[in-house]
Each structure stands twice: as structure tokens, then as C-alpha cells.
């Protein structure tokens, strides 16, 4: 999609990904502008009253007890942005920053935050100009919103700090705004707080991870099917009637995908010929159960994400009856839990893929394949060290699966005494997703090589399509040892970009 039109009712996951990754432009609907103006009138009325209102005429957090006079309120809102832009560490990826900016804009357009239309239009202007604030790795506890990351974004809106231009060069924000004809925004009552107080960073990372994992789970069904073929396994365990006995929808989908890939294979079912096996190893036989459980986890995470996309996370919030009330909706627990849950599921998927790879390389368990799939074992080492790399990735994924959301460090002089650590969970999940694509890439290398070494047996048409596409993409087949890193890089790209899935689906049709 080229343009996303924002209204007061929220956005879809696809629209967030389109803006974050695809650079889609952003427009505010007339309804959104009307909702912004209506809620602003409520805030302006409260600002004129002598009674203190949190975020409008008071300090913040543990300093909320101080009433702020009218002449200091612009300074108050500017100061919260400056003081909260306190991140440290490496720069966060451009797509994550764009996602959190767009999601904050989504909440502003709900009419629940009380900011002026000029603030929302300013944020949309940054997105459309391709100006991406510099946001740092550390600074959010996932409660009271992703404060430091959002503050760095708001700082750019004020024309302060540093940002990345459309060309990727980091420059002073004031220069970039001037270059694109954008004026810095001066903040009025509540507006600084409204720009900071949301779970947008962790939600953005969840939505991006869901898009990636939906691809990788289907890709894992493909690599599992290829490994089954290369190991001369049986596809009988994939039968619909067997999987219906345990009616988890994800399991049924994974088994169906594997059946499609293996349809017409001449390699499956040969395990009784020369070395009788009653059944295949767990890593082969239970592939649909493990991948299926992960799929069901994805489904739950999507439900949480959809609810968050329909939410307006801010504190205080403008209600339909005109009240402005303090609340705890900024707590990131709902998002943090599923971010952690996905990291657990992804680690287990990586783990079972590595076990299949190891089986393919071990001559005592590979049912006739050469040691390490080497051309001249002893002279050649084959894929021995590729499995080392894969094992290292799996080990890191297990460490990344340690839940961040069970940790909490009190902040703001014990006013904010329980936090979600959802931002940290999101950062861990992003690393885990990258590792999973690499792990599946190594399994792909081993499985395709194993299939090609089964002389005289014809693989499934879908498998042949994968091998042909992989070889065309630079992933080489069996042969003497060579510099292996380029092959692994080509395989990772082949998996990550969806080329693997496209090759399979050219034969099978869409996989679930």
C-alpha cells in the first residue's frame, strides 16, 4: 500500500508494517482531525481551571504533587521531552522507530490524548519525509510507556537532537526539518506527556516479529519436510486422521503443509528396506506438534496485538463524557508476555531444526548418507562446522528465551514500582527471529544436499523446485569443500526474503 489513512478507530497490523518497512505515506482523515480538535477543547477547558489535573497542570511521576502555573506549562512539556530523551547504547533499527512513531500517531488520532491537530500533523510529516529520530537501545522499562524511545522521537518533532535522513545519514534534527519544510512544534499542556506515554515500541516490535514469524513457521514446515525426505522418513505420521486425534489447529496446519511439500516424493517410506525402523526420531516425527504449538502461540499473540491496535494508550486519557482520568493502561504486561512467549516458541522451533540437521550429518543416524554430507569424508569436512554455527545460534536463542517480563525494577522514587520490561522482551525477540532464519538456512543446506545424495530416488516436485531455486540463488550443492560462509549467507537470504516459500508454493499452492 502506498498511503495509510488514519482515523480515530485505529489501524491494522498490515498498515503498521507498510509504514514501518515499506515507507507508506500517512494521511489524517477528517474524522481524526475532528476527534483531535474535540479532545483538545476539553484539555484547554481543564487547563483554565484552578484545580490540578495530572499531565495538564502538574509535574510527572513522583513529581505529580506540584501544581504548575500557566506561564511554566510550555516549558514543562518541553522539559519532559528533553529530560526523558535519556537513552543509551546502539541506535534502534529504522523500521522499529517508524513503527513506534506511527503507533503513537495512531493513538493521538483516537481523540483520547487531548493534543492539538498540529502535533499529530507534525508527527505524520516526519514519517512522510523519511526523517527517523535516533533512538537508543536502552531506556524503556515498558511501563508509563516506552518513555525514552518515544521521548527521542518527540525531541525530533521539537527540532532538537539528532535524526536520520532519508539517505541514512544522521544529522541535527533542526537541519532535517528545515530541509523538508517542516516547522518545529511548540508543545502546549499535556502534549509532551501524550507523545511519551505509550507501549508503541514494544507493540511495533511485536507486529514486525509476527510478520517475520508467520513466514518462518511456514518455512520451517518446508525444511522439516525436506529433512524427512533426506532421511528416508515416513510421511504416514502426517495423515489428517492422526492429527485430528489431537485437534490443535496449528498442528493440523503444519502437518498439512508438510504433506503438500512431500506429495509425490519417491524418498519417503523407504525406512523399512535396508535398515528397519519402527518409527522416525522425535525431531522428524514430532515436527508438526512443535511447529503447530508455535503457530497457536502466534495466533494468541495476534489476538493481543489486535486488541492493542484498537486501544488508545495514554495517561491521563480523555473519555467520551469529557472527563480526563488517570489510569494504568500504559502498563506493558499484555504485550510483554506474548513477546516472551514468542521467544520461547521460536527457540524451540530452532532447537528441533538443529536436531534434524545433526541427524543428517551423523552417518550412524542418517541411514546411508556420507559423514557430514562430505564429498570425500576425512579429506572433506562437509557441513560439520555449519552445524556448530547452528548450535551456537540455538544456544543463544535459549538464552534469549529467558522471560524479560518476570523482572521488575522500581523507578521514579517508587511511584512506578512495578514495570513490564516489555521493551527488553521485544529487543530479545528481534534477535531470536534473526537467529531462527539462520538456523532454518543451515537445515536447508543440509536437507537439500542430503536429498541430492540419494541417487536413484526421485524427490517430490516441490523439493525439486526448492533445490533448483536455491542453486540459482547461489546456494551450492554437494561437492568438495569450499568456503562455506557465502553458501550460508545465500541460504539465510533465501529463507528470510521468502524465496524458499515462493519456490515451494509455485508447486504446492499457498501454504497455511
From TrEMBL:
UniProt modification remark: Contains an active site 4-methylidene-imidazol-5-one (MIO), which is formed autocatalytically by cyclization and dehydration of residues Cys-Ser-Gly.
Cross-link position per record: 5-imidazolinone (Ala-Gly): 143-145
Documented EC number(s): 4.3.1.3
Subcellular location as annotated: Cytoplasm
Enzyme class: lyase
Keywords: Cytoplasm, Histidine metabolism, Lyase
Gene3D superfamilies for this protein: Fumarase/aspartase (Central domain), Fumarase/aspartase (N-terminal domain)
An example molecular function term from Gene Ontology annotations: histidine ammonia-lyase activity
Reaction it catalyzes: L-histidine = trans-urocanate + NH4(+)
Modified residues (2,3-didehydroalanine (Ser)): 144
Predominant cellular place of this UniProt entry's protein: cytoplasm
UniProt KW Nucleotide-binding keyword: no
Pathway(s) this gene product operates in, as recorded in its UniProt entry: Amino-acid degradation; L-histidine degradation into L-glutamate; N-formimidoyl-L-glutamate from L-histidine: step 1/3
Family: Belongs to the PAL/histidase family.
The protein's name: Histidine ammonia-lyase
Lineage, highest ranks first: Bacteria, Bacillati, Actinomycetota, Actinomycetes, Kitasatosporales
